[in-house]
Amino acid sequence: MSHTQKRLLFIVSLGLVASLLLGTSTPRLRALPSGALKIVMLGDSLTEGDGDDEGKGGYPARLQALLEPIRAGTKIINLGKSGWDSSALINGDQGLPSQLETAIAEKPDIATVWIGSNDLWYSVYGSSDDEVLTNYQANIELILSKLSKTKAVLFIALLDDQTKRPYARKTDSGYSADDLKRMSMFAIKFNEIIRDQARRYGAITVDFFKTTLFTDNATLAEDGNHPNAAGYDKIAKIWFGALEPVITGKQAAPTPDASTATAVATSKP
Fold first, then answer.
1. pLDDT value at position 75?
2. Do 25 and 36 share a domain, yes or no?
3. What ranges make up the beta strands (E) of the chain?
4. d(Cα 226, Cα 224) in Å, to the nearest integer?
C-alpha cells in the first residue's frame, strides 16, 4: 500500500470514528410494517374538518380513501379539535383529554401533527414575543419528543401565514394592522421552530406555508378561514404526497436524531 493510500485510509477511519462519536453518521432509517397501518392525526379545526361542506370530516377521511389502494385496511384516527392550540393538544381542553396522550396510547405506525393556527390567533393577546415563542417551542418539542418514543413515523406541517387569509383581513376581525404584522412574524418563527424540532426528532415536514389554499376563495369556506370540500380534497392530496413515498418504501423514514434525513413534501397537490 502506497503512502498516499495509507494516508487516505487513515483520514477515512478518523471520519468514521468522529461520526460515531458525534452522532453525525449516515442517518439510521426505519421501515414501516407490512399490511394495514394505524395513523393518528393531531391538530385543530383544520384537522377536525371545520368548513367541510360535504360533511366528510375534512382531510383525514379523504386521505384514508387515497391510502386504501396501497395499504388496504389502514385506519386513520382523527384527533383534531376545533379551537385547540399546542398547549390544549398536550393538556386537553373543553373537558376533553389530551390528544397527545390519546395518540400515544393508540401505539400508531404513523403520527401527523398540524398545530399552531390557534397559537397564532391567540399570540397577539397579552404575551410578549419571547413568551409566545418560548411556549410554542417547548410545546412542539414535547409533542415530537413523546411521539418519537412510540417509534411511529412522524410528520409535522409547516404553517401558512394566516394573516393572508380573507378572514384576517376583514374589518371586523378584531385584528389591527400591527396585530397582523406581529402574527405574520410569528408564523415565520413558528416554522423555524417546527423545522428545528423536526430535524431533532426525525419528523418529515409537510409544507403548507407556500400553499395558496388559504387565499383562494375556490378552496375556502364562507368564513374565509377554513377550507371547504375542494380545499380539503387538495389538503388530503398534499398529505398523501408526503406519506405515500414512505408507506410504499420509496423513501425510508428518518429516525430521531437523523438530522439530515428530514424531507419536505411540496405543498402543490
1. 97
2. no
3. 29-30, 38-43, 75-78, 110-114, 153-158, 204-207, 253-254, 264-265
4. 6
Cα gap 220→228, rounded to integer Å: 5
**35 and 75 in contact (C-beta within 8 Å)?**
no
68 and 182 assigned to the same domain: yes
Query: Domain of 7?
Result: 1-30
Orientation angle between helical segments 59-67 and 229-247, nearest 10 degrees:
40
Q: What is the CATH number of the domain that holds 67?
A: 3.40.50.1110
Task: Count CB atoms within 10 A of the CB of residue 13.
Answer: 10
Cβ-contact 210, 157 below 8 angstroms? no
Q: How many helices (H) and strands (E) does the chain have?
A: 10, 8
User: Is 108 in the same domain as 139?
Assistant: yes
Within 13 Å and on the Cβ side, how many CA atoms surround 252? 12
In this structure, what DSSP letter does residue 252 have? P
Let me know whether 7 and 133 are in one domain. Answer: no
90 and 208 part of one domain: yes
Q: What is the pLDDT of residues 174-222, one digit of tens each?
A: 999 999 999 999 999 999 999 999 999 999 999 999 999 999 999 999 9
Q: In terms of domains, do 14 and 86 share one? A: no
